């Protein structure tokens, strides 16, 4: 009998559990990869950043896996340093963005006027082309590291804020919130105990998925010349400088750093997606 | 004294659910409200407990009107306990939101200590209803509105719960409004029974 059943009804449950497990494995792998990247940014020997004309313009080899630039600097060291800087810029900007999104979406609980102001602000930011807003803010703040971080932080919150706002609106109308209100609890108490724990998975995944955006935008405004200054080993700087040398056949200046940036962004993206898979089929935290 | 003065309510402007309904509930009194399903009993209960605002008329609780800044002295027990409990909380957190309860009190309501660390999805509707009842029965509560409170329970549990509740009502001199479509239950528990249709038909 059981044979018959298993023959005609392939057990889908075990497959599902595997998918979740796989997502978790991928997430852990992604975190390890990122940790290696950031760690190596700290630990790597900065000797390679010193100008050395003897080895200028050399193609990739065993001693310089990513080649060297026109000043003889090791491209591998520059790339790793640049990615590590991008990581911190992305982390800080995504964190600030997440906090802004959370606070603004929670204003929904305060009153209607504030909420419609927030909605208007979200529409305003989503209406302006992203890169234009980035350039304007960064330029206004005089560029540099802080300019970039603040510009990226101030332009990435609207999407997440809209998501969180919808979520809050749904919980706000649930019966257990009304019951809580009739127990004499304030909205502040309800936000803290009912709503925030509910928002945490959304907020966390939103934060992770904001990361690749932030890094790419940091690189692109730096590339366009409105971001970090040229002595910093940022990926955007490396790429924009490499543009001038591409025609002379020095392909390695752009290809490897660009590839590495792509890998880091892809790792973050898959981390966010996999974490969403882990959190999303939320059926109560069972033991 | 809980007084309902000439309240009317409608979910849209053309069709009112009811019009000009009045009733009063004294402390210590158990008042039954009988009516067929779909007649507006739950809506009426929600208005008395302050969950909905009536279109006209008022609900006066010991001389005060809604909304209260403090804990509502009128507590509503509905027929869907699973909706009134945060699905992400363990049961001890659910009770903790309302206050501190003695083990004895919880035992009287048939709440087992084992359930305290479970999530709502791991308990049955009847078990959840006991928690709803427990958290509503804090000292500040003066009136209890029971809207089909024990409809989902089996006969033995029903009898157990009612015995405890009736005893508590007597002890604390609470006013209770029992809304049900089960006439025998009302006859057994209430001092006075009103037919919701009569209330509607008066106008």
TrEMBL record, chain B:
<keyword id="KW-0067">ATP-binding</keyword>
<keyword id="KW-0547">Nucleotide-binding</keyword>
<dbReference type="InterPro" id="IPR017871">
    <property type="entry name" value="ABC_transporter-like_CS"/>
</dbReference>
<dbReference type="InterPro" id="IPR003439">
    <property type="entry name" value="ABC_transporter-like_ATP-bd"/>
</dbReference>
<dbReference type="InterPro" id="IPR050319">
    <property type="entry name" value="ABC_transp_ATP-bind"/>
</dbReference>
<dbReference type="Pfam" id="PF00005">
    <property type="entry name" value="ABC_tran"/>
</dbReference>
<dbReference type="GO" id="GO:0005524">
    <property type="term" value="F:ATP binding"/>
</dbReference>
<feature type="domain" description="ABC transporter">
    <location>
        <begin position="2"/>
        <end position="203"/>
    </location>
</feature>
<comment type="similarity">
    <text>Belongs to the ABC transporter superfamily.</text>
</comment>
<dbReference type="GO" id="GO:0016887">
    <property type="term" value="F:ATP hydrolysis activity"/>
</dbReference>
<keyword id="KW-0813">Transport</keyword>
<protein>
    <submittedName>
        <fullName>ATP-binding cassette domain-containing protein</fullName>
    </submittedName>
</protein>
<dbReference type="InterPro" id="IPR003593">
    <property type="entry name" value="AAA+_ATPase"/>
</dbReference>
<dbReference type="InterPro" id="IPR027417">
    <property type="entry name" value="P-loop_NTPase"/>
</dbReference>
<dbReference type="GO" id="GO:0055085">
    <property type="term" value="P:transmembrane transport"/>
</dbReference>
């Amino acid at each position: 009998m059981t044979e018959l059943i298993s023959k005609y009804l392939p057990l889908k449950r075990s497959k599902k559990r595997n998918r979740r497990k796989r997502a978790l494995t991928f997430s852990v792998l992604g975190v390890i990869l990122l940790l290696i990247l950031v760690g190596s940014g700290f630990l790597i020997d900065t000797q390679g950043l010193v100008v050395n004309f003897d080895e200028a313009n050399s193609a990739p080899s065993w001693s310089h896996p990513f080649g060297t630039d026109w000043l003889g600097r090791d491209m591998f060291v520059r790339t790793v340093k640049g990615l590590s800087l991008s990581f911190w810029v992305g982390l800080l900007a995504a964190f600030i963005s997440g906090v802004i999104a959370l606070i603004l979406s929670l204003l929904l609980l305060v009153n209607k006027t504030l909420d419609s102001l927030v909605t208007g602000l979200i529409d305003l930011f989503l209406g302006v082309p992203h890169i234009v807003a980035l350039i304007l803010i960064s330029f206004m703040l005089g560029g540099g590291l802080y300019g970039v971080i603040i510009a990226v932080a101030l332009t990435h919150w609207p999407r997440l804020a809209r998501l969180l706002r919808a979520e809050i609106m749904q919980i706000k109308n649930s019966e257990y919130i009304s019951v809580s209100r009739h127990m004499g609890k304030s909205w502040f108490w309800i936000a803290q105990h009912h709503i925030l724990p509910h928002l945490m998975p959304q907020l966390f995944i939103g934060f992770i998925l904001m990361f690749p955006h932030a890094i790419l935008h940091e690189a692109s405004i730096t590339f366009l010349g409105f971001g970090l200054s040229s002595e910093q080993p940022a990926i955007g700087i490396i790429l924009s400088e490499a543009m001038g040398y591409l025609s002379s056949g020095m392909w390695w200046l752009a290809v490897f750093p660009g590839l590495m940036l792509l890998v880091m962004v892809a790792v973050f993206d898959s981390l966010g997606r996999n974490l969403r898979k882990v959190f999303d089929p939320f059926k109560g935290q069972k033991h | 004294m809980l007084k309902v003065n000439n309240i009317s309510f409608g979910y849209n402007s053309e069709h009112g659910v009811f019009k000009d309904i009045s009733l009063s509930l004294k402390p210590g009194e158990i008042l039954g409200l009988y009516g067929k399903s779909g007649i507006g009993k739950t809506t009426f209960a929600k208005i008395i407990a302050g969950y909905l605002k009536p279109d006209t008329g008022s609900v006066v609780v010991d001389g005060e009107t809604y909304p209260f800044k403090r804990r509502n002295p009128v507590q509503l027990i509905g027929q869907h306990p699973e909706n009134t409990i945060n699905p992400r909380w363990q049961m001890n957190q659910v009770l903790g939101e309302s206050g501190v309860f003695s083990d004895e009190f919880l035992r009287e309501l048939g709440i087992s200590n084992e359930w305290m660390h479970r999530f709502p999805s791991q308990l049955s509707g009847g078990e959840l209803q006991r928690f709803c009842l427990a958290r509503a029965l804090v000292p500040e509560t003066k009136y209890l509105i029971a809207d089909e409170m024990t409809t989902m329970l089996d006969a033995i549990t029903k009898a157990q719960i009612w015995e405890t509740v009736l005893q508590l009502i007597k002890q604390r001199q609470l006013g209770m409004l029992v809304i049900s479509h089960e006439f025998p239950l009302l006859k057994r528990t209430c001092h006075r029974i009103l037919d919701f249709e009569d209330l509607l038909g008066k106008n």
